[in-house]
Specification:
homodimer; 161 residues; mainly alpha; two-stranded antiparallel sheet; 2 strands; 70% helix
Chain lengths: 161, 161
């Protein structure tokens, strides 16, 4: 790997680290409460399985991004990094999609199933979830670029970088 | 690519084709109705955005799996197949995760948000969605194996298959 490419992939990993860390922190600290018919209704991420899965996935990706920054591309461990990049991309995609599906019901509701939207009552919570999803989406895109970079030898066997 | 490997990857692509086609058909044909308080309540996939996205994603993956079966590994198009395998894996993972998140709310509900489970009323619909999700999950795993196979040159540069 040339120095230019090393700086490029390291920058991407750093960006992924920041994005996943941001997504985790925003989602964990998201909360809001509303009073409906004299009952206080509290919204937080831990009330929904998909958001809990999201937090775990983003935290794992965050930790991995930090560790991968320090693995030399010349070491044998690097091959493990290539496989783990694929696994982490799938984990990120999966967690963003699940959380997005639930966030969509939270915002729009589903009249057929009788699920009412909740974002009108807890707008602060919904805004934080949206911010967290955007950060996680950026991280997923960054990992996709890293995979395509790993596949470059398959794509152009003549290029040796 | 040796003959053995070609048969192996072709079998995987055929399995992915069958799985995604099954997932699409089961989800599209899923429907059930229940009578609640003299109102007929109809459950079908098109009532929920995540299920519509699921059907589109599975149909696209199904069409792609069919086309990829006929692309020779010696042609230049093969490089495109390698990139598209990654894109399709991400598409499948994303659609399964989104649909699973909604199916989970359908089965368990979310008392905090006031979303009641609907599977008690429309068990036939829920069973079909479950079947469709299992088929789609198998397809996603198959594509993950295909990606790892494409990455073999990165993982073991000395092996030429």
């Amino acid at each position: 790997m040339t120095k230019g490419w090393r700086i490029f992939t390291s920058s991407l990993r750093l960006l992924a680290l920041v994005a996943t860390l941001t997504a985790t922190i925003i989602m964990v600290t998201s909360h809001d409460s509303a009073e409906v018919l004299n009952l206080t209704f509290k919204a937080k991420y831990s009330n929904e399985s998909a958001f809990k899965y999201f937090v775990i996935a983003e935290a794992v990706a965050s930790g991995y991004s930090l560790i991968a920054l320090f693995v030399s591309s010349k070491s044998l461990l690097w091959r493990l990094v290539v496989i783990l990049d694929v696994i982490i991309t799938i984990l990120l995609t999966s967690s963003v999609s699940a959380a997005l599906a639930i966030a969509h019901v939270g915002k729009k509701g589903n009249s057929h199933a009788g699920w009412l939207p909740i974002c009108g009552q807890v707008p602060k919570f919904c805004n934080q979830v949206t911010g967290s999803l955007i950060a996680a989406f950026i991280a997923a895109i960054v990992y996709l670029v890293l995979i395509l970079y790993s596949l470059r030898t398959v794509l152009s066997p003549l290029i040796t970088v």
